[in-house]
Write a structure and sequence with these properties.
NADP (chains A, B, C, D); homotetramer; Semialdehyde_DH_NAD-bd (chains A, B, C, D); Rossmann fold; seven-stranded mixed β-sheet; alpha/beta; N-acetyl-gamma-glutamyl-phosphate reductase (chains A, B, C, D); NAD binding (chains A, B, C, D); Dihydrodipicolinate Reductase, domain 2
């Protein structure tokens, strides 16, 4: 049995980790921590977890944590993980970090959009945990930077197309939509029921921090800089995320070529489902699962390819992919515990 | 033209008042105040109101307020109105107060559930603004205590039945359900979209402050103490309120007698709609209106009468009824401005 | 491995069965049938099931079905199961029926509310599949009548209280609320998004067919006839059900006595969670699980006990409880496959 | 008083017309027709309309209809209006048609996407009822083709920009999102609550019939053919529509130029509200109103302009704009009856 611990267990992504790991067949969840809820049973914070997890939230202490844990999940606000992770590594613990702190190989990029990085050398060696595309590196990684939710939808859809030369690298637009849980459990007017219900709008139209993350991975896949236009929106639903991505087919390429490239890439990947011609992904089909559904359409007049990609933002977009990363790191069945 | 002002214009009930009064044919909205948003145009706080109301939120000052206003709406948290209203009256302004401060004739009851009252003599002379039942007193009132939302559903349904002796006064249960806007615009975990969406639960099961308000009016109607069991619930919808009220038919009385008593009471009342036999009120039918829909069912085996009563909690349950009260006070058409 | 088949796999309860049984550790799902979708892969009907279940819907044929199945789930409209089940039993197949056809020991009662029964002797010997209360009989049952959703909420809450004499048997009221999926996947104006969204209303106020089912079991528990008032409502949510039940404490009994009686009954029952004093069940806490959450409140003035009981109507209220029944019948861990 | 009639009053757009016209200060609603509900009071079909409109649905008969009506609203499925409208015109009645039958000047385009047109000469002379842009022609029109909902969002946003040469005419993409009411009141699996709730997906990705309507008007504004990519999506909300439109700024043009061009165009148009820099339209702000909110963002790296445009699909996208058209045709205040 792998011994796992969660640092920051009481946000939405932390709670999803608790839910999954507490019944994972190959994992024993040994520690959960929370500053805000120290001393409180997790089932008091999330009554849905009672009879499922009996753990009590602890304060985080590197030494006592590392003594009981093989793999740590850090489900914390950006900036905190880069202070904590070095100690975990010293303590012999491998890490799946759900924040942005270890997603960038180009630390300067991170610093432009977030803040100064206090553990840049770790970030440079960390592995970007997009499971289906980076499996081999993840297997042996000491630190996995678990991808952002928007990047997961866009990168799973576009990386194979760029690599195979099916689409042009310029002029890509992603019109993306997320359920409200993506904003977390913290209180804000935008997450107030009466403001989000029956609402639909764009946000962060002047630049969302997931854009540089997406561009770094697309650029690496393309072998040259890729810039995209990225506009996120808020769906009046709790969970789910859909990106509708507009790109231009390379000369002579067709929707069918795109379908083939994706099919080849994901043939043996359980969690990416390619929809057949004419079918569209729906967040309803992926909610409460770790699947990413990808569908295609094209506009012959303009030569545009439309790629639609849907996930559950809390699972494949966060905690589900984190568990999948742990499964890969630990040599388990990639699907273990991900029902 | 009546000159109206709103003290506390930026909560949900305040904003509804602005929305209605800014197009009311017989009213000029002259002042709106807000502590939090002093100096900010209301249309910045509520973009829905732009091109509808150009007013800027002011700090409240008794003198300058009274100079420009005939009737004031106080849409403030409990406790503040009792400090402000005496000054408004001295300034010659009539008041519709949307808080609980002036709903009780029995000030002791208020003090048991809220806090010490600093203007008890005003409260004792204020009129309870349940329009359909207290029209005559409202006409000449200087201060109207605008009813709570739950009380409005229950009292409009039960007072005529109690007065006509159709139902027994004991054993009444109201299982009531409210949209989330009833909790206001303030931030709380219970109003977080991800906690309220796809949720349904009871709350304040150990005693909600609307219960004494309901009981005072029922007792007055019955001529003796009436005690009810009252359990409120939260509906995953923005607006709307439904009370399902269980009572016992008096000996020899029938559902048809109840229907007749209600029909007679509300025959000439535009805003109370009695549903015919077999039809049920639905919050969908009253949303964005000032109507109260009442329906009846009965269980012949137990002699129980089931009364269902639906309103929009922000309109007939708050701001709509407040405007209706103003219309009555000012001798206008009761429906004016209430489309 | 138990071989299981589902007759009627394409309604909401059928699809939930497919979802669970396709990853159940001790079960092989061998056959699924559908008249409407014969020849269609279930993953075309429910794209959410792709990569999870590769089965194709078949027409139902008793012989070929029985050859491949140990336990059958009949997820069909009332009336069809009573024609099919005799053949299944002859074929040596045990049955969990999700319709009302085998819920009644008193077949006359069934016939009053549904239609003439064509297999009354089977119905009389069938076991009512309320797992926590009828475990022993279920273990050896050939036919289990899987309880209705409303009955599950009410009976799990009240049977222990009645048996222990904590509450009086008369005057019980259940104000119950269900998510829209309870009405099934068939098209109707009431299930149209624009009619159900932001809506809340009672329905079937003149008598819902779950009432006699509830009363039969309560009466058996009490040892004398019990009649209840039962008013169902529709919640604008997909899944979840809450019953708020009003009863009267027996002389000298308290809320604490009720809590003890429930705690003793469900002490070793994983799927019933008793909420502590002051906590209320929320459908959000049980969605996508097989749990039933029960909470208590009381009104000392009236001697009333308020019992709140929440489930996911598609799981503990239908398919989850059906799997639990199968687990018990097959001698498996009661929780197997019910994550 | 203008005498108005509605042909097809029982769909969602018909009901909205009834709601508005029954309290319109300058209009008497004299006739409503419905094939399905002939003889039924509209308030039985829509209980929300009781005490608001006492009319009973009639069968449509040209003669008796024309005798009582000055202006007709045809709120019917495509194809029916082209059979009915010629008779209305002969009867001296002016028409606002809410179907697509009279939206196209190029009848061949209509016939490519819908069906053969039986009144092409009327269609060629009809006026496209985009109020803010075609006011003068609408004033004297005998037949107004009321715009589609998606076209309204896109055309109000883009026509001024194209005319002023702020954006390039090629490469325009509209990623559009609509509330479920856009699909009408007819029953379909896609409008089933459990399929639409908590769902989000694209639809008609191979070509939606609003695209040629949009392109015809854009082409006329541009003076040359304009082709767009248009992908509609479904929002899990009853009402509201948002288009996020991606276009390319013409050489040397800026977001500020775009803002100025829109401001000049809509300066005296009450119902188009231009959001200031940084603010985004939200369907919540326009629900239950006739406003269209437009916001702008730009991506300096790519030279892209992002135009966001929000309406209530049933009001500015259908019945509200129809009433606005009637107001213009009848020389009334454009805002009359549109609160």
């Amino acid at each position: 049995m792998i011994k796992a611990g969660i640092i920051g267990a009481t946000g939405y992504t932390g709670a999803e980790l608790v839910r999954m790991l507490s019944v994972h067949p190959d994992v024993e969840l040994t520690v959960i921590t929370s500053r805000q809820y120290e001393g409180t049973p997790i089932s008091d914070v999330y009554p849905a977890l009672s009879e499922r997890c009996e753990l009590v939230c602890e304060a985080f202490d590197t030494k006592t944590f590392c003594d009981r844990v093989d793999i740590a999940f850090t489900a914390l606000p950006h900036k905190i993980p880069m202070d904590i992770v070095p100690g975990l590594l010293e303590g012999g613990v491998r890490v799946v970090d759900l924040s942005a702190d270890f997603r960038f190989r180009n630390v300067g990029q991170y610093e432009d959009w977030y803040q100064p990085h206090t553990a840049p050398e770790i970030s440079e060696q960390a592995v970007y945990g997009l499971c289906e595309l980076n499996r081999d590196e993840i297997r042996t990684a000491r630190v996995v930077g678990n991808p952002g939710c928007y990047p997961t939808t866009i990168l799973l859809a576009l990386v194979p197309l760029l690599k195979a030369g099916i689409i042009k690298a310029d002029g890509i637009i992603s019109d993306s939509k997320s359920g409200v849980s993506g904003a977390g459990r913290g209180l804000s007017l935008g997450s107030h029921f009466c403001e989000a219900n029956e609402s639909f709008k764009a946000y962060k139209v002047d630049g969302h921090r997931h854009r540089p993350e997406i561009e770094e991975v697309l650029s690496a896949a393309h072998g040259a800089d890729v810039e995209i236009t990225f506009i996120p929106h808020l769906i009046p639903a709790t969970r789910g995320m859909l990106s509708t991505i507009y790109c231009t087919l390379a000369d002579g390429k067709t929707e069918e070529d795109a379908r083939k490239a994706l099919a080849e890439t994901y043939d043996s990947s359980h969690f990416v489902r390619l929809r057949e011609k004419g079918a569209v992904p729906d967040i309803l089909h992926v909610q409460h699962t770790n699947f990413c559904d990808i569908g295609l359409a094209s506009d012959p007049r303009s030569g545009r390819l439309v790629v639609m990609s849907a996930i559950d933002n809390l699972l494949k977009g966060a905690s589900g992919q984190a568990v999948q990363n742990m499964n890969i790191m630990a040599g388990l069945d990639e699907k273990a515990g991900l029902y």
